[in-house]
Amino acid sequence: MEPKDFLYENAKALFNNAPFGYFCCDKDLVLISANTTFSHWIDSTTDLKEGDKKLSDFFSEETLHHFTDFYLPPLFSTGFIKDFIITLRLPNTNTITLILNSDVCRDETENIILIRTTATKITPEDATYKKTEGALIEANLQLELAQKVAKTGHWTFDPQTEKYNFSKECLRIFGFDNDFDGSYAMFMGIIHPDDLGKLAETRENIIAGETSFQIDHRIILKDGSIRWINTQSVVDRNDTTGQMFLRGTSQDITDRKKAEEKVRNSEEKYRLIVETAQEGIWMIDKQDCTTFVNGAMANMLGYSVDEMMRKELFYFMDEAGRKLALENLEKRKKGIPEQHEFCFITKNNTPLWVLIETGPMYKNGEYDGALAMVMNINNRKKADEQIKKLNEELEFKVNERTRDLKVMTERFSMAKKAAHIGVFDWDVVNNILVWDEEMYEVFNVPSNKFTGAYEAWEATVHPDDKDISNKKVQEALESGNELDFDFRIIWPDKSIHFIKGYGFVQKNEMGAPIRLIGMNWDITNQKSLELRLEKSKKELEAFSYSVSHDLRAPLRGIDGWSLALLEDYGHLLDETAMAYLERVRTETQRMGVLIDEMLKLSQIARTALKRELVNMSVIANSIINRIRDLGNTPPIIAHISDNLITEGDANLLEIMLTNLIHNAVKFSGKKEEVTIYFGKIAIEGKATFYIKDRGVGFNMDKSKKLFGAFQRMHKQSDFEGTGIGLATVQRIISMHQGTVWAEAEINNGATFFFTLHE
Amino acid sequence: MNNKTILLVEDNQSDIALTKRAFKKANIANPLQVAEDGQEALDYLFAEGPFSQRDKNDLPTIVLLDLKLPIVDGLEVLKAIRGNILTKRLPVVVLTSSKEEMDLAISYDLGVNSYIRKPVDFTQFAEVIRQLGLYWLVLNEAPPQPL
């Protein structure tokens, strides 16, 4: 062994077993080496030589902060630190307190590469001197802890040097790491811009002589977040030099500020909710007086908030409401919350329907009033009432209609029954034919034998009418026109019945027929009447025929043989006998004329009326001209109005006018001239034609039978005639829906009036 | 004036006698064949039944036809005459009491040559017969014989 090595080995043994601890660590506090003494202190089982442990592993959190705040900064800046007291926590939960003396080794670029430390262990039984110091350390530690818990740091400020000295907690509160140089400028750099003025003001106050101050202000941390700080300070003054020294504490009050803010915000929020709510909010005290209403509530009732305050709740309702409110308030006093509808009376004295959500309020466990949320349901209430009213009206109308419908249905079915009208409804698409009860009677088919198809109806139809009936139905379906035709059916008893079919077609949106609905009724009686009428018309024709043939033939015989007697045997007869025979012939011929006239009348009755525009003035003039042409009458002076135009059958009107004009001429026969008027006047608003003469007239009292056939007002010897003329006139006028009458006076003319198409 | 037969279809004995008297007064001497019903008239014209020995080509110069006849009425007779090739051109004058429009219309539709209504007054009737004879027996050109 070299002597140098021997020395080294001994030194090493001495070093390891020294009564003080020795250790080296790098600047991150990783232990590089330690002597045995230190190793034993901190962990008897672990060899610390291996450099895998950090000094900080043995620190409590507080110790670490204290170490990094107050040990390392001066060590790094000055290169050594002396008598730094620290308490280590050991793995066996014991603690040891050490006094450290450290220096640093640097490399050539001044980087710290090693911290060398000697440590002296302090034990309670050890040195009394150290004891006092230990208590101080303990107090410091406790202060530090208290500051940390209260988030309060302490500081000093020397205005002469403008330098701050911050406690560890203070640094933390202000967000400084070890980078705070204590300068006033740096401190002011983190103050919230809005609070700079506040701080400047404080500073001026201090210069002016303030001895203490308190201020809340904000700082902006490095991460940009804002922290509220409460700072309290006292100012020490040297009265002789005027030098000042400030001591103070700063507390992080961000949480409190946030809580305050939160409270303020939530109060604001509730205040806003209450003030701006659409619902009314109403509070009363235990005397039922209003202690609070919001704007909405006041608005609803038409008052201002001030008008409502201190007013009794009952002020805002009518008598019925008061009664109800009293009952409700009793419930509140018993602690019962409730939702109910209520009717207030507004300032304008109109009802206000509301929905109230209300409950009691308590103070010290006793009823202290009530709080209510009030919703305006006036519109809803009005709408409800309107709906109710409408419903009632609708119901009434429905009932009325139902009643009407029932009455109509009853009437219809009675009418149907009375008239024996059956109703059918044929679903064309599905060929379902539905008959009502009356149909079964019309067709005399028992309902259980009816198959309910078109063919069932078709089977009842008379064979001769089947084709035409099917054709008619088909035409109606194709054209969509109304169905209207007669057909015969054969009843099971073989009797033939005439049926009237009437119906209409329903089409779908494509225009295809889907339904044929209609009525059938028995018109056999009507048909047989028609047939009988037809028959009697035929009989009348046959009668007329035989009159003209069979009655005239013998007349011709009588006349003919009378003449033969006169011609062949006239020489054997005296004049009287000859005259008698002449009379036989005259009467015979007269009878022939009567028969002809009668035939004419019956022919007129059987004429089908034509309708055309007829100028009666032209016809009357031509009749008069024909009479003049015959030349066997006195001169005729005719006053005929122009354009007496009507609608009707020209031939029949001419026959009518011929009769009247002939009469007028005939009954003027004994005068020197004949004057005839033909014109139109209005009688009782109706156009009335008249033909007037200045003839012999007649006795009005005996004119009742004037228009009857074969009725004559004059003796045959005075005026010839058959008495058929006026009967014909009346027949023709009544065929034209008109009336004829006459006014006359004996020897003072006659006027015949007639109307057409009344 | 030719000498050919006149066929009078008339059932009324009085009218037959009066017609003969009128012919006589009008100096119409043509033989007058009387058929008292429609069937008899047709039998005569077509030489059937009682008249089967008659030459059916020997037609009367004119037929005076009453309409109201027993068995077969006048319009049926007219129809049969116009429907037969032998007689379709035969002049037929309806001589009747009827003035019914239906009778007139049907008669003309069936091709009657004239329609005359018998007046009640015999003087007038005799005049009608005179003119009828003058016209049909003297003035009128008879139709050609059918082939």
Automatic annotation (TrEMBL), chain A:
Coiled-coil segments? 373-400
PAC domain sequence ranges? 213-265, 338-389, 483-535
* Source organism (scientific name): Limnovirga soli
User: CDD domains, alphabetically?
Assistant: HisKA (cd00082), PAS (cd00130)
- Name of the protein in question: histidine kinase
SMART domains, per this entry? HATPase_c, HisKA, PAC, PAS
Xref: Pfam families = HATPase_c, HisKA, PAS, PAS_3
Keywords, ordered alphabetically: Coiled coil, Kinase, Phosphoprotein, Transferase
Q: Specify the PAS domain's residue ranges.
A: 266-315, 408-480
Q: Name one GO biological process term.
A: regulation of DNA-templated transcription
Q: What class of enzyme is it?
A: transferase
The record's section on NCBIfam families has:
sensory_box
Q: Any idea where the Histidine kinase domain is?
A: 546-758
E.C. no: 2.7.13.3
Query: Which reaction(s) does the protein catalyse, per the Swiss-Prot or TrEMBL entry?
Result: ATP + protein L-histidine = ADP + protein N-phospho-L-histidine
Q: Does the keyword Cell inner membrane apply?
A: no
Q: Which GO terms describe its molecular function?
A: phosphorelay sensor kinase activity
From TrEMBL, chain B:
Q: Taking every annotated instance into account, which residue ranges of this chain make up the domain Response regulatory?
A: 5-133
CDD domains the record matches: REC_Rcp-like
| UniProt KW keywords | Phosphoprotein
Q: InterPro entries this protein is in? A: CheY-like_superfamily (IPR011006), Sig_transdc_resp-reg_receiver (IPR001789), TCS_response_regulator (IPR052893)
Any one GO biological process: phosphorelay signal transduction system
4-aspartylphosphate PTM positions read: D66
Tree of life domain: Bacteria
- Protein name (Swiss-Prot/TrEMBL): Response regulator
